[in-house]
Amino acid sequence: MIPIQGGVGGFFANVLESVGVPPELAGPFADAVVGAAIFLVAFVILYLIGKRAVLPVLNRVLNARDLDRHAKTPIKKLVWIVYLFIGITIAFGVAGYDDFLRSLATIAAAATLAIGFAMQDVLKNFVAGVFIFTEKPFKIGDWIEWDDNAGVVEDISLRITRVRTFDNELLTVPNSQLTDNVVKNPVDAGKLRLKFVFGIGYDDDVERATDIILEEARAHDGIMDDPEPSVRLTELGDSSVGLQSRIWIENPSRADFVKTRGEYVTRVKRRFDEEGINIPYPHRTLTGGIEVADGPVAGE
User: What dihedral do alpha carbons 181, 182, 184, 189 form, nearest 10°?
Assistant: First the structure.
C-alpha cells in the first residue's frame, strides 16, 4: 500500500467509524474504495496520455512508412490493445494491488503458453501479416502470382489476404503462404515487358519479318516507345525460325496485358499473311521403304 493510499484510507476509515461502522469492516472497506479510486484515476490518466500522445506518434510513424488505410487500421488496434493492457497493469500497481498483479502475471504466462501451442498457425499468419504490412511486397489492387495461382489483391488483413483470380474466383490466402513462397508482382515498377516468339519458315526473309514485327509494335498505342521494342532471333526449331519480340506496356493490369498482346499478335499475323511470310506448323518427314518378300501368302 502506498503512503497516499494509507493516509486517505485511514481518514476514510475514521469517518466510517464515526458514523457507526465497526472498525473491522471500516478499515478493509476504506482501503478497497480508496484503492479502486486510485486505480480509476491512474487508468484515466494513462488512457488520456495514450489518446493525446501515443496514438498521434504512432500515426506519424505509420504515415512515414507510407502505409495505406487497410494496413494502418489493424496495426493501430493491436498497439492500442497492448497499451491498454500495460496501462491496466500500471494502474493496478499504483493502486497497491501487488499480490493481484503477481497472480495475474502467473495466469497470463500460463495462458500465453497454452494459446501459443494451440494457435501456432494463427500466430504464424499474424506475424506474416505484419511483415506484409511493413515490407509491402504488394498492395491492394496489385496483380500478383505465386505457386500456380494469380490474381488481383482485394484485401489484406493481419491473418489472411484475399485475391480475386482472373476467373473471378475469390481466394482466401493465409499470409504465411505469401511470405514463405516467391511472390511475383508483375506491375510493381509501373511497366511490364512482354515477350512473344513469332515462328517463320526457313525460306522466309528474316529481316523483312523483323521489320514488320517492329512496325506493328511502334504503331500500337498501348506499346511504349521508350524502352523501344526489340526483336532477336532466338530459336532455330525443327520447322521454324523463332523471332522473339520484346515490348513494354505502361501501368499494366492483367486485362491490359492480355488485350495488348492479343491485338499486337493479330496485327503481326495479318501483315505476315499480306507479305507472304509463312508461319509453319510442326511437321515430320518419314523416310524408309517397304520390302516385299517372295513366297506364299499366309492363309493360302
Answer: 120
Cell numbers at 80, concatenated: 492500442
- Give CA–CA dist 180/221, Å, rounded: 39
As a CATH number, domain 191-275 is 3.30.70.100
Cell of residue 248, nine digits:
513494354
Spans of all domains in the chain: 3-118, 138-184, 191-275
Give the predicted TM-score (pTM) of the model: 0.52
* Alpha-carbon span 243 to 246, nearest angstrom: 10
Residue whose cell numbers read 493525446: 52
CATH of domain 138-184: 2.30.30.60
- AA identity, residue 96: G
Asked if 160 and 173 touch (Cβ cutoff 8 Å), the reply is yes
Strands 241-250 and 191-200: antiparallel
Distance in angstroms (rounded) separating the CA atoms of residues 139 and 137: 7
**Alpha-carbon span 21 to 69, nearest angstrom:** 57
Q: Give the number of other CB atoms < 10 A from CB of residue 26.
A: 20
Distance CA 276, CA 146 (A): 42
- Here the cell at position 282 is 510442326
Q: What is the pLDDT of residues 159-209, one digit of tens each?
A: 889 999 888 889 999 988 888 888 888 766 778 888 899 999 998 999 999
Q: Are strands 170-174 and 183-184 parallel, antiparallel or unpaired?
A: unpaired
**Residue 27: all three cell numbers together:** 478499515
For cell 515462328, what's the residue?
Answer: 199
Q: Tell me how far apart the alpha carbons of residues 140 and 115 are, in angstroms, rounded to a whole number.
A: 31
CA angle, 228 as apex, 225 and 233 as ends, to 5°? 145
Helix H or strand E segment including 202: none
